[in-house]
Amino acid sequence: MLKSIAYKAETVQLYVSQGGRCALCAEPLDYDSGWHDHHLVRKVDGGSDALANRVLLHPVCHLRSHALGLQIAKPASEKRL
């Protein structure tokens, strides 16, 4: 259960850092559209679960990124503190 809580907290951090938008299409993420947690460097290629290696994508954008071999960049945070 603690792992689940930690994962949800990380998802919120990703959501906030991306301004609530998909890292591929930049359209808003919400419960209706859903989202997938995408690794920028795949785990099988040595990528980690660190937040710096993950972004949130719409499910269809996630499928498209893999089907077309798209490189996804981490969006710049809209809020700089």
Automatic annotation (TrEMBL):
<feature type="domain" description="HNH nuclease">
    <location>
        <begin position="10"/>
        <end position="63"/>
    </location>
</feature>
<dbReference type="InterPro" id="IPR044925">
    <property type="entry name" value="His-Me_finger_sf"/>
</dbReference>
<dbReference type="Pfam" id="PF01844">
    <property type="entry name" value="HNH"/>
</dbReference>
<dbReference type="GO" id="GO:0004519">
    <property type="term" value="F:endonuclease activity"/>
</dbReference>
<dbReference type="GO" id="GO:0003676">
    <property type="term" value="F:nucleic acid binding"/>
</dbReference>
<dbReference type="GO" id="GO:0008270">
    <property type="term" value="F:zinc ion binding"/>
</dbReference>
<protein>
    <recommendedName>
        <fullName>HNH nuclease domain-containing protein</fullName>
    </recommendedName>
</protein>
<dbReference type="InterPro" id="IPR002711">
    <property type="entry name" value="HNH"/>
</dbReference>
<dbReference type="InterPro" id="IPR003615">
    <property type="entry name" value="HNH_nuc"/>
</dbReference>
